[in-house]
Amino acid sequence: MNNDRKIKMDKFVNLLNKKLKNNLDLPNEAKLILFGSPISGFGSNDCDLDICLINCGIDSSLNPSIFIDIRLNILSQIGNLLRKDDEFGEIILLRHARTPILKFKHLPTNFNCDICIEHRLALHNSELLKLYQEFDERVAPLGFAIKCWAKLYGINDASKGSISSYAYIIMLIYYLQRCSPPILPFLQQEEDNNNSLKIVEGWKVYYTKDINLIKQKFQSKFTSNKQTLAELFLNFLHFYGYKFCIHSNIVQIRVNGIYDKIQAKVPMRRKIYVEDPFDLNHNLTAGVYSENLNYFIKCCQKPIIGLRQLDKEIFFLNEVNDQIDNNNKLQKEKLKMDFTSIISMYRPTEKNQKYPNREEFQQIL
């Protein structure tokens, strides 16, 4: 995401904050905060705005159903306010979502926005992911590549039973913590974070928040992996296409080692389980359909055979898009086209198409 986009986002959130404070009965301390991919460092120039209204004066110890009703009431008030303004459209209140949200579009900026109320865990999730992407310069471009690959292959829409972009980033961090040699540490080791332990929405939240302290402590132990971005991207596909046991193991970034569904006391169903870093009862991929999960595995398997034959860096040229002079539009378009055109070549044409098993794959290589 370029700086111009970030500035526009911040300006819009500040203006919206003033609008709510001037027209709704909110405490003086209430304010809107951006979270999600624009904050974590994995946001693209066309990403949605995730916004949280905090300090609303809601007692978090209330009965959960009452807590939800109060949040819904505030969201309804915001929705009614925005409907009176021609600058806002496509206003929808998702009452029955796990966390109720108000979706809307700001027409002058073309921003698609989601507002939630007092969802503090989401703010910590964004901060934790930001620390991971700041630890190694390869993490953010890898995240962009995986999100682009998933979008090109049509496997990134959670509303249609696929894996969400957020879950893909957790899956990436999980892989980078366990590749050989590992690239990322575990930032939620409880014994290292007792001083920062707090309870948020009923869950333990602990992690070291100072990236400089994190690098001082861990970086000397995580410098031996010199793989290129392309190698890591292909190995990510290979890991989830052939190595990771989706039906029995859990994707979790809290602790080292293998954590399976028996340990977590969750059903041994043929479903992927990506654990939220803090809300341990939240499977980020609970809504993924079985046929989409099978197709996801095929989308991992097919590209690695073809892409290993190519120049390993060619389809990562677009990672520098945001660093290129904005005036050089022709170069930006060319670099972007390289990635999408090459990756698109290897999209599975049919969901029931069969690809090599582990042994057959090794013979091909």
UniProtKB/TrEMBL annotation:
List the Gene Ontology MF annotations in alphabetical order.
Answer: metal ion binding; poly(A) RNA polymerase activity; RNA uridylyltransferase activity
Cofactors needed by this protein, per the record, are: Mg(2+); Mn(2+)
Q: Ranges for the PAP-associated domain?
A: 228-282
Q: Which SUPFAM superfamilies match?
A: Nucleotidyltransferase, PAP/OAS1 substrate-binding domain
Which residues are in the Poly(A) RNA polymerase mitochondrial-like central palm domain?
10-133
Give the GO terms filed under biological process for this record.
Answer: RNA 3'-end processing
- Any matching Pfam family: MTPAP-like_central
| Superkingdom per UniProt | Eukaryota
InterPro entries, from UniProt?
MTPAP-like_central, NT_sf, PAP_assoc
Keywords from UniProt, A to Z, are: Magnesium, Metal-binding, Transferase
Q: What is this protein called?
A: Uncharacterized protein
Q: Which organism is it from?
A: Meloidogyne enterolobii
